[in-house]
Amino acid sequence: MSTTSTTSSTGSIPALRLDSRDIAREAGGTAAGFDTDTDSRSGGAGSGGLTANTRSRPQGLGRGMPSNRRPEPPAPGRPGARPLVAAFRRSAPGVAVALAAAGASVAATLVLPAVSALLVAIALGVAARNLLPLPAALEPGLAVAAKRLLRLGIVLLGLQLVLGDILALGPGMIAVVVAVVAIGIGATLLIGRALGIPATQRLLIACGFSICGAAAIAAVDGVIETEDDEDVVTAVALVVLFGTLMIPIVPAIGGALGLGELRTGLWAGASIHEVAQVVAAGSAIGGAGLAAAVVVKLARVLMLAPVLAVVSIQRRRAMRRAVAAGGADASGRRPPIVPLFVVGFIVMVLVRSSGLVPQAVLEPVLAVAGVVQTMLLGAAMFALGTGVRFAMFRRVGAKPFVLAAASTLVVAGVGLGGVLLAG
Fold first, then answer.
1. How far apart are the C-alpha atoms of 386 and 127, rounded to whole Å?
2. Which of 120, 147, 237, 269 is packed most tightly, with the most Cβ within 10 A?
3. Tens digits of per-residue pLDDT, 144-195?
4. How far is CA 177 from the centre of its chain?
5. CA dist list (Å): 327 to 221, 321, 332
6. Angle at Cα 243 formed by Cα 149 and Cα 341, nearest 5°?
7. How far apart are CA 217 and CA 206, in angstroms?
């Protein structure tokens, strides 16, 4: 690039001045030359000389053609490291607060053994949202806790289940468990439709009340990817409210009917929503009632896997119909038939039930896994609790409460009838 060639091609002083800056840039020039290029390309004085000059110079000389520059390659051996670090930094504060709340919830159960750590975590989340100004910096981490930590907790939940214990219930009680889940979900969906409740909200309430409470609600949300988080929060709040009311009601009615500890425990396990709520009710019933209640409840928890598979298949079919009708993008992500965390849950059930792991190894693993599972689920419940705003209940109206009450009655009624027939 020379002064003589530029003068002959453009015959103008601006071109000569620009060429000098090009030379300066080739030698490591300043940002001022870049600004001149940009202004000239946008139609400023001397733009004709610049056009001829930039088109004639080879690609890569100077900075006059930013579109021709190739992006700098990432640092070798660390592909995608920066986005991961940035995501970690965004989510770390919220995750840390959620885990701290879970730790406080576990500590509270040491003082009050009859209280569930998960229920305490939800209460702390609700209180934090409505009584404290939660910083916006916590929101990304709370979202991670509500979904990813919950899924990890559900995977570890599988270690609580022993297939031999569930099979020992006998075919009659196993049929009762299946009936409670199937009839509970079906009836809740039908009642919800009659009440005019949106399909997503009634599905969340149906699965939460029929299977295992807040964990089931969040698991279903992980499959259908609910667009409105208010639906999830409402369902969680309702399952906590009505399940807690069932803790004293079931033992009282069981005693009034003369069912005895065993059958009252079976009914509690078949009708109360949360595992922790079942444990609280079983403790009030007695030793035999507690053992029976927990086994039946865990049998309902086991139904989470097939129910999620059915929900996922139905979701995929709905998406295909929407694409065929032209109402959705064909490139949209479809949920897997069996979500990965459900596969992990099943694997943990098989590991616990196989008997291949020596008991000397299994016992400490189960002890640690139990603490980790409680912490993960507690953090998730706290995060879900922070989504509850008292003003929200005025917006949602009375219909979800009516549906929750009806679902509780259906599940309890099917459970009681089944226990009287099979117990």
1. 8
2. 269
3. 988 888 888 888 888 888 888 888 889 999 999 999 999 999 999 999 999 9
4. 26
5. 22, 9, 12
6. 25
7. 9
pLDDT at 51: 41
Q: How far is CA 265 from CA 201, 255, 282, 287, 416, in A?
A: 30, 11, 6, 9, 11
The pLDDT value recorded for residue 362 is 86
Question: Rounded distance, CA 212 to CA 207, Å?
Answer: 8
pLDDT above 60 for 23: no
Whole-model pTM?
Answer: 0.67
Query: What confidence score (pLDDT) does residue 321 get?
Result: 78
Task: Give the span between the Cα atoms of 107 and 127, in whole angstroms.
Answer: 18
Residue 135: how many other CB atoms lie within 10 Å: 10
pLDDT given at position 80: 52
Q: Are 25 and 35 in contact (CB under 8 A)?
A: no
CA distances from 96 to 113, 132, 138 (A): 25, 17, 9
Q: Measured between alpha carbons, how far is 119 from 131 in angstroms, rounded to an integer?
A: 18
State the Cα–Cα distance between residues 37 and 182, nearest whole angstrom: 71
Residue 176, number of CB atoms within 10 A of its CB: 29
Measured CA to CA, the distance from residue 407 to residue 185 in angstroms comes to 8
